[in-house]
Structure formats: structure tokens, C-alpha cells
């Protein structure tokens, strides 16, 4: 058996998220179907770096799986891409040690979130950015970002529905936001992320950008460790899993 | 009766083109359904500047229609956008003289075509640009563009299936192509365009970029007045109707 690591891109618009579910079109379902075809009907289980929700995109998701086949790596990539629909693309396939695990071995993840900040919507961005037509003070949002960097308990900024056990302490190495043309790009790099964490944080930063909160409120909110202290989770379509480091 | 002119944007990915067809999702079908709803069940016929094919996008299509209602223009826009799905957006509604015609009064149209020029495809561009992984000499493509500007008989560069009667002479005011990051942007401004004209021209320019033809062949091809002299029509998803001038 050989363990293979794949790096992939997918447009989350037409998937019911990553995780396999009966009767739903999911990234895992489509990938496992393609692998099963390559393995003459034998089921092959894949393991992602983490799940993504319905509508969330990936530019650099990673998965691993085991295969009895000894295929040159370029052929793996080509064979998989031939079998996959046009909204998933395998960028790289590598042979890794049998001890490698796509989820447990993650040392850093990078997410980006895009806000389409204009008076009127753009139909071409509707699945790829969150349309936000209200005035924003980007400078105060940038100050807020700085308060999030470092090691904190992110209970306030994670879904109350999450079933995460153990510590909700995580380290964020980078939290930035920049105006790029009509869009605001948020970059989050961290040791790990709790369920809905990026989307809840972006919601609070947008509150700060609108002047509904102060940037310095972040410290108070972190210390509350209570999801109810903050507002709504922003929509999935602005979120991209960009890179996973091992 | 008041004549109204609308400027609209649509993502062509999930439409079977502009023109109404029974049982198909078309831009005209969706627009007329929304207008019929606003007119208490009375059918309202719309007239576009021209049709667009399946998969072709619009950033500035225009239509006109007649209505017995006297509604402030901002309300027209808002009412229509409320009734329309998220892949069509009305940017502007104007009252125009009853003699105005969205098709017959066109004095200039602008189309753009996008080629995604990279070694590997990008899932996020699959509906919005033509993926072309082969080497291209953009400088010779730019020379070819110059040969197309001006007044010519474009029979060679229009679909043989077209039912256009009368002259196939058109004037192109601008034909340009520029590398923009991983994409090549073509801009076409002209007095009018024959069926498939932009997509056939882009195919020939890409042949020139690959060195399969010389830029100066354009003059010879124009003089042949024969669609069979040139190669295939490039895919619809790279094409955008950007602006219509009256």
C-alpha cells in the first residue's frame, strides 16, 4: 500500500460541502467515486485536512488516501482529473510516508475571505464574494485584525453548535485585510481554526468597519468566551481554503 | 404607454441563451416572466440589442419594452431586481421616446473575450474564460488585430448557418488584445457584429499566436468571403457583451 497526498482546488458553489452525505453532491463523494472507478470498484476512503461547508471554496485543500497501485505520480494526477467534473481539479499528487495524516499533521492553514464592497451587486461575483454595500472604515478594520493575531481562546468566535472537544485555544500568525479594487481581501493564517471561526470573525470586523463596535472590543469579546457576544456568521461564498502546511 | 430602456448584466452560465424557447431557461423568458408578474398577468414583450448564445455573458446588454405603468424609474429598477434571480441584474432603467428601438438604433457595440492562458486550468474561471494552455506570441496577435480594424466584408468570419440578409460589411473601430496577468483580454468595438463573428475572429487570432498562420493572412482571409477558410469558433464562456451605444 502506498499513501498519496493530493492538493486540490474546487469551486464550492455546486457542492453540499466536503463531507459525504447520501443523495447529496459532495466533494468527498465525487472524489471517492472517481477513486473507486480507478480501483476497479473497490471503495477508497479519503481523509481531508478538514471539512469545508456548503458553498465554501478551496484553492489548496489537501487529502490523503491509500492505494495498492504503484502509478507514476503524473499519471495519478491525469487519471484523476480525467474522471473528475470541471469544478474539482487535482493540482498535485505526491507519495508520502504511511505515517502521514492530512488532518493530524497540519501545522498551518491559510484561509481568505472576500467581500465585494460596492453600491450594487456584480452577478459574476455572487458565488465568489460576499456583497456588502454599506460604508466601511478599512483602517479601523485593520486595527481590529491586529487584536486577533497571537494565541487566544477563540470560543467567542466559534459556532456554539461545534462539537470540538478540548481546548479552543488557537494561534493566528496573520490576520490582515486590504482593499483590492472593489473587493476587500482578508487573510487568516493560523495553527488551526474552530468551526465557523473565520466567518464569525469577519462578521465582527465588518461591525467594526461600520462603526458599530470599536476595534479594541476584540480583546473584551475574546475574554467573554461566549458565542452569543457577537453577531452573525457571514455567508460561505466569500470563504476560500487556500493552503495547508505540514 | 411608456417605452423603457433597461441596461442589464447577466451571467450566461446557466441560461440557454437570450432568446425565449419553450421549456428552457432563457434570459428573455426570465425577464418577461418578471414583467408579466409586475403587469398583473399581462404579457410584456421585450426587445434586446441582439441575442446572446448559451453561455455568453453580458455586462451591459440593453432591452426595451412598453408599459402602461407610470412608475418612478428607481422603483422600476428595484421592482425588477426583486423579481429576478441572482444571475440577472438590472443596472439602469430609463424612459425613452416611443420611437427608440434597442436593436435598430444601435450605433456601436463592445464585446470582450477572455482567454485563460496558463499551463493548468483554474476551476474558478471555467465558466468565465476560455482555458488555453498552449504557447502564444501575443505581439503577433496584436498585429493581426490591426488588420481587422476598419470597414470590411466579414463573411469569412461569420457562421455559415447565419440567416443574415443583406450586407455582411461591418466597421470595427477597435480590435485589441492585451495580456492581463494569466488572462488575455480581447476588446472589439464595432458598428455591428455578424453571428459568431467575435468567436471566429478570436479563433483565427489564436492560430496566429501559435504560429500556425501569419498576421498578414487576415487580409487574404477577409477577401475570400468563405467561412470554410478559417478554423473553429472558440467557446462561448469567454465572451461578454459589454456595452451598447445609441
From TrEMBL, chains A, B:
Pfam families for this protein: PseudoU_synth_1 (PF01416)
Domain of life the protein comes from: Bacteria
GO molecular function, a single term: RNA binding
Keyword Lipid metabolism: no
Subunit and partners: Homodimer.
Family named by the database record: Belongs to the tRNA pseudouridine synthase TruA family.
Stated role: Formation of pseudouridine at positions 38, 39 and 40 in the anticodon stem and loop of transfer RNAs.
Protein name in UniProt: tRNA pseudouridine synthase A
Top-level taxonomy: Bacteria, Bacillati, Bacillota, Bacilli, Bacillales
Amino acid at each position: 500500500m502506498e499513501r498519496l497526498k493530493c492538493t486540490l482546488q474546487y469551486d464550492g458553489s455546486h457542492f453540499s460541502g466536503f463531507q459525504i452525505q447520501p443523495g447529496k453532491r459532495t466533494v468527498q463523494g465525487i472524489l471517492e467515486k472517481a477513486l473507486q472507478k480507478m480501483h476497479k470498484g473497490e471503495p477508497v476512503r479519503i481523509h481531508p485536512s478538514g471539512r469545508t461547508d456548503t458553498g465554501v471554496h478551496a484553492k489548496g485543500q489537501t487529502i490523503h488516501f491509500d492505494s495498492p497501485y504503484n502509478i507514476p505520480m503524473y499519471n495519478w494526477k491525469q487519471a484523476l482529473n480525467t474522471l473528475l467534473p470541471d469544478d474539482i481539479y487535482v493540482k498535485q499528487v505526491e507519495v508520502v510516508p504511511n505515517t502521514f495524516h492530512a488532518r493530524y499533521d497540519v501545522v498551518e492553514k491559510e484561509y481568505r475571505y472576500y467581500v465585494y464592497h460596492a453600491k450594487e451587486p456584480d452577478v459574476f461575483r455572487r458565488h465568489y464574494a460576499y456583497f456588502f454595500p454599506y460604508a466601511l472604515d478599512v483602517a479601523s478594520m485593520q486595527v481590529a485584525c491586529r487584536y486577533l493575531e497571537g494565541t487566544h481562546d477563540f470560543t467567542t468566535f466559534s459556532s456554539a453548535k461545534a462539537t470540538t472537544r478540548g481546548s479552543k485555544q488557537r494561534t493566528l500568525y496573520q490576520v490582515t485585510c486590504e482593499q483590492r479594487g472593489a473587493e476587500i481581501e482578508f487573510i487568516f493564517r493560523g495553527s488551526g481554526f474552530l468551526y465557523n471561526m473565520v466567518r464569525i470573525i469577519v462578521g465582527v470586523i465588518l461591525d467594526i468597519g461600520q462603526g458599530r463596535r470599536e476595534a479594541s472590543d476584540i480583546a473584551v469579546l475574546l475574554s467573554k468566551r461566549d458565542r452569543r457576544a457577537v453577531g452573525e456568521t457571514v455567508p460561505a461564498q466569500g470563504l476560500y481554503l487556500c493552503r495547508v502546511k505540514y
